[in-house]
Amino acid sequence: MNIxxxxxxxxxxxxxxxxxxxxxxxxxxxxxxxxxxEERNSYKLDLMINETYQIELxxxxxxxxxxxxxxxxxxxxxxxxxxxxxxxxxxxxxxGIIPEPIRIDPHTGKRFTFFQDPDGLPLELYEA
Length: 128
Known about the structure:
2 helices, 8 strands, YwkD-like_dom, metal-binding, Glyas_Bleomycin-R_OHBP_Dase, 2,3-Dihydroxybiphenyl 1,2-Dioxygenase, domain 1, VOC_core, single chain, VOC family protein, 2 domains
């Protein structure tokens, strides 16, 4: 098997408009494509991060909630690489998102912090 990279990450949200606003207005991802799939009563929003990675944001009627805290089985979190964590935290704070205190990765010495999307999905900023 010759896997080159992660192609996309799919996220199911409970409130499409709130999540769309969060990922585009707060995090600044660009909309690549938006489709309403009438047969599924579902939106699919393709988002780009610096023209490289893609997030697929889905809405479905009444999706079940997944446990995410403290350490549920499954995807633990989604981490974003940032060049300056202090600037990124300040930008989030100005937009009303309060991340956890910045920590230091004991293995790499790099700084990181966590915050949540509108559905409580744990997101991480990791300083490159």
